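Input/output pair, single chain:
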Amino acid sequence: MSNTNEENKDPNLAQRIRIKISDETDIRVEMISHIHRSITKERKNKAHIDSKNATRFIIQDLINNDNGSIQEILKYNGVKSSEDFGTVVKKLCEEGILIKEEDDNYEDFNGHFITESIDDFIKLQKLKKDRDWFKIVSYSLYSIGIAIVIVSYATSIPNKIGWLGWGLGMVGWGLLTYKSKIKISLNKILNINKV
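Output:
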């Protein structure tokens, strides 16, 4: 499955189609948007999303959003089973928002889970929250640096410690700002060492 260019012509088209699908299926618009984003988003490992692995990616993205119990989220949004994902994807394809590829089959969504037993599916698929350690370290350095600088202004902490805080904050900010460039450079270095 892949995205179409129809959304570029009319920015509100996708939302209107999601609302229409929501009215037809009794699945909330937010969940339809989530399903669409999960299928069309760029993945770290460049995985091709087809009908066989789409359910896994949709649930993985729900776990990563960290908004509570997956079972409660699915119930609240009107999803009774994995077949509902297939219904939404089929309607998105029929409306021209997604493109069905040759090897995609809507029946591949059947039988993965029912909402009451979603925890069994999650355990079977070994799904867990993806942690972005780069982001965690960056925000931590930035926050600690800011805290040290603020405390140095408020109390009589030596200037050297204040400058240390400023330095930590700048390192954190730099990591966040230049994340993609740093990752590209690290990948080049790691690939050179493998040769």
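The chain has ten helices and two strands. The longest strand covers residues 2-3.
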